[in-house]
Design a protein that fits this description.
The chain is an all-alpha fold. The protein has one helix and no strands.
C-alpha cells in the first residue's frame, strides 16, 4: 500500500513538469489519503 508521504513525494517530483506542460500552480492531496485514514477495505 502506498503511503501519504510517498504520494506527496511523487507529486512534488511531478510538479515542475505539470507546471511546464499544463501551467499547474498548485497540487494537493485530498480524501482518505490526506488524513491517513485510508485502508484497503
Amino acid at each position: 500500500m502506498i503511503t501519504r508521504n510517498e504520494i506527496l513525494f511523487k507529486l512534488n517530483e511531478l510538479k515542475p513538469k505539470l507546471y511546464k506542460e499544463y501551467s499547474v500552480k498548485k497540487i494537493g492531496l485530498f480524501g482518505s489519503y490526506s488524513d491517513d485514514s485510508f485502508n484497503e477495505d
